[in-house]
Amino acid sequence: MILDSIDKKLLFLLQSDSKKTTKELSLKLNLSVTAVYERIKKLEREGIIDKYVVLVNRSKVEKGFVVFCHLKLIQHTKEFIAKFESEVVKLKEVMECHHVSGDYDYILKIVVKDMEAYREFLVTKLTTLQHIGSTHSTFMISEVKSTTVVDI
Predict the structure, then answer these.
(1) What's phi and psi for 4, nearest 5 deg?
(2) What DSSP state is assigned to residue 47?
(3) Which of 48, 112, 124, 125 is the most exposed place for a label (fewest CB within 10 A)?
(4) Largest Cα–Cα distance of the chain, in whole Å?
(5) What is the spatial distance between Cα 125 and Cα 110, in angstroms, rounded to a whole number?
(6) Burial class (CB in 10 A: 0-12, 13-18, 19+), 135
(7) Where are the alpha helices (DSSP H) in 17-114?
(8) What is the pLDDT of residues 47-65, one digit of tens each?
(9) How far from the centroid of its chain's Cα atoms is residue 120's Cα?
(10) From start to end of 5-152, where are the E strands?
(11) pTM of this prediction?
């Protein structure tokens, strides 16, 4: 699907606030409510709009301690990678897991209450996964930028 300028503006508006009504969006885009509705449905059908979510303020729910954990596997076999990935996705503290190039194999973004909770997670969950060779933890001091808006 080729996105025109209206699609791009519509996506920006929805990414900024997905609770906007089709009427509100139609006023901003100078389109009819029906035209906006049809564009949104097409973007959903094409998989460009993947899902709608609520972003939670982590500090308000005692999950304000953010850790980036760099992780190495002991070997890079297909079996070890598949096993690790199938297990790490089950850990609720892991918000993101990225398979990366460089000195480490994975970078995990982990959110917990505090340092004590991170230690508990590390000892009882993360390091019990098979095939982990080493970990290196970096703790967030402050969040300078965090966005979910993809510039199109």
Answers:
(1) -90, 180
(2) T
(3) 124
(4) 57
(5) 12
(6) middle
(7) 22-29, 33-45, 78-88
(8) 999 999 999 999 999 999 9
(9) 23
(10) 65-73, 94-99, 106-112, 132-139
(11) 0.90
